[in-house]
């Protein structure tokens, strides 16, 4: 249940950027290879948001597909699951380009 | 309807705060010349039992110390206390009813009690859990995983994040191989699929198999 720690961090980051305004939406990007359970994250976020600038805000979680570039043939593949394998040549030696993200992308703030 | 919201770009990593603290821990370890291992596993895989064997064997060879992380109790620290080496217990239950992992700040809070300059290798025994500890750096030089063969061959596929982040996997409880229908080759294949070329050792805390090899690995890390 590390989602609670992650949710707390999201709440802190968002609150720090609120400039005293109400936060309507928090956009979070989560790489496909992260082991983050969205429902647990949403639950933690709602729980921790109470009484803080993010109270009532929507948490929008975008799943970022995992993309790897093959060191063998140079092709780029979308990686759905392990083992991480090149879709073109079947090689396993891949450089991960996307899929490990975990960051607050942006906020939607109430206009004043 | 007119627009009432404005967008503000943030682009801030959720784990940045933890990573910065981990980096600060790491710099502190480096200054003291202490090599740090983040030891992770599921509950009951044998981390503490292996550490007992390790402390026995390395006595007089290497100054190895332990920082114990547990949700509650000092049971593990009590087991290791008989080796009369400095030891710190960090309980994680000050969080939301018991954090499932150590983070960089918890480790930092435990460091004050440790004489780092007199420590060659510090083993941070993480909370037993195959998911959460993998997400949180604590300032370690290497991640070592203890996996026990009673857990089943498929675990690397089910918990890829942790298996992928390991620098060394200790395949423990191999004394039970003859009693189980465990397929070692299949497990090693799954491990290789998740973490290509990762180093592993077969160990048994009960019989002592592989413990010397693991101790030599630790000594090489110290002298590197």
Overall geometry of chain A? elongated
* Top CATH class of chain B: Alpha Beta
| Helical fraction of chain B | 25-40%
Output the strand order for the largest sheet of chain B: 4-3-5-2-6-7-8
Give the mean pLDDT of chain B. 92
- Overall pLDDT score of chain A: 93
- The helix/strand order of chain B is EHEHEHEHEEHHEHEH
Content-based structural category of chain A: alpha+beta
Biggest interface, chains and residue tallies: A-B, 31 and 33 residues
Helix content of chain A: 10-25%
Radius of gyration of chain B: 19 Å
CATH architecture of the domain at 3-65 and 99-109 in chain A: 2-Layer Sandwich
CATH homologous superfamily of chain B - what is it? P-loop containing nucleotide triphosphate hydrolases
Number of helices of chain A: 2
Oligomer: heterodimer
SSE order of chain A, as H and E? Answer: HEHEEEEE
Secondary structure tally: strands of chain B: 8
Determine the strand fraction of chain A and express it as a percent band.
Answer: 25-35%
Summarize the structure.
The complex is a heterodimer of chains A (112) and B (224). By secondary structure, chain A is of the alpha+beta class.
Write the layout of secondary structure elements.
The complex is a heterodimer of chains A (112) and B (224).
Chain A: H1 3-16, E1 23-31, H2 38-49, E2 58-64, E3 66-70, E4 76-79, E5 94-98, E6 102-110
Parallel strand pairs in A: 1-2
Antiparallel strand pairs in A: 1-6, 3-4, 3-5
Chain B: E1 5-13, H1 16-32, E2 35-41, H2 47-58, E3 64-70, H3 75-81, E4 87-91, H4 104-111, E5 121-125, E6 142-148, H5 155-158, H6 160-165, E7 168-172, H7 184-194, E8 199-202, H8 211-223
Parallel strand pairs in B: 2-5, 2-6, 3-4, 3-5, 6-7, 7-8
């Amino acid at each position: 249940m590390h989602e609670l720690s992650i949710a707390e961090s999201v709440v802190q980051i968002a609150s720090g950027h609120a400039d005293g305004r109400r936060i309507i939406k928090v956009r979070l990007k989560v790489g496909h290879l992260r082991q983050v359970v969205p429902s647990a994250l949403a639950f933690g976020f709602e729980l921790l948001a109470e009484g803080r600038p993010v109270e009532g805000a929507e948490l929008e979680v975008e799943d970022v597909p995992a993309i790897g570039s093959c060191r063998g043939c140079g092709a780029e593949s979308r990686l759905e699951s392990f083992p991480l394998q090149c879709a073109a040549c079947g090689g396993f030696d891949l450089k991960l380009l996307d899929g490990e993200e975990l960051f607050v992308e942006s906020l939607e703030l109430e206009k004043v | 309807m007119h627009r009432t919201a404005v967008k503000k770009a943030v682009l801030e990593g959720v784990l940045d705060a933890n990573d910065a603290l981990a980096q600060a821990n790491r710099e502190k370890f480096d200054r003291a010349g202490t090599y740090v291992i983040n030891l992770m596993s599921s509950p009951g895989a044998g981390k503490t039992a292996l550490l007992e064997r390790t402390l026995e064997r390395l006595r007089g060879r290497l100054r190895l110390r332990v920082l114990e992380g547990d949700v509650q109790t000092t049971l593990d620290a009590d087991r290791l206390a008989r080796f009369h080496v400095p030891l710190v217990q960090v309980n994680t239950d000050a969080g939301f009813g018991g954090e499932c992992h150590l983070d960089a700040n918890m480790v930092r809070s435990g460091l004050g009690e440790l004489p780092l300059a007199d420590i060659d290798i510090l083993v941070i025994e993480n909370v037993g859990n195959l998911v959460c500890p993998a997400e949180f750096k604590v300032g370690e030089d290497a991640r070592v995983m203890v996996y026990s063969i009673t857990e089943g061959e498929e675990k690397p596929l089910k918990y890829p994040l942790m298996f992928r982040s390991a620098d060394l996997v200790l395949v423990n409880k191999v004394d039970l191989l003859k009693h189980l229908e465990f397929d070692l080759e299949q497990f090693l294949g799954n491990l290789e699929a998740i973490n290509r070329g990762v180093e592993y050792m077969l160990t048994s805390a009960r019989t002592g198999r592989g413990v010397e090899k693991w101790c030599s690995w630790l000594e090489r890390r110290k002298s590197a």
